[in-house]
Specification:
This protein is mainly β. The chain has a domain of 102 residues: Roll (Thiol Ester Dehydrase, Chain A). The chain is built from one helix and six strands, in the order E-E-H-E-E-E-E. It has a six-stranded antiparallel sheet, with helices on one face. A hairpin with a 3-residue loop joins strand 1 and strand 2. The chain is globular and about 40 Å long.
Length: 148
């Protein structure tokens, strides 16, 4: 990853148009993540516009949900990262209109990389897909100063 091009990434600008979490993207997923200090979590119900084969959610949409959860886990852990490698295991086909929960967490962090994992589950807890990723850290955020 030492040969990655230097790209300007504007982390200050509003991300309202992000496909996965942008609330102003008319075709986006509009995910909203919560954080409990270790795990990020979002709810999502894919519809007919998210299908691949008739009645089934496209694997790319499922992968996008997992990638975004892992990105948010890295973000809440204090770093901004870009996915460098991702491995996904689909455990079952996913029908459209099924409410989902996507969770993500950090499993390891070094100076330059953060490793993450994520899961997609049905409302009853049935696992649908899982993923791991290695992300290249391009910005470490400062921790807020307490009683400074």
């Amino acid at each position: 990853m030492t040969n990655w091009p230097q790209l300007p990434v504007d982390t200050v600008k509003e991300s309202a148009k992000c496909f996965a979490c942008g609330q102003q993207n008319p075709i986006g997923l509009k995910l909203k993540f919560s954080w409990d200090g270790k795990v990020v979590k979002a709810e999502f119900t894919p519809g007919e516009l998210h299908q691949g084969w008739a009645g089934l959610v496209h694997g790319g949409i499922m992968t996008c949900l997992l990638d975004e959860a892992m990105s948010y886990a890295a973000l809440y852990s204090g770093v901004n990262g870009l996915t460098a490698r991702m491995q996904t295991r689909f455990k079952r086909p996913l029908p459209i209109d099924e409410p989902l929960t996507v969770t993500g967490s950090v499993t390891r962090k070094t100076r330059r990389l953060v490793e993450t994992k994520a899961e997609l589950r049905l409302a009853d807890g049935t696992p649908v897909a899982e993923s791991t990723a290695t992300m290249y850290i391009f910005l470490v955020k400062r921790e807020p100063r307490v009683n400074a």
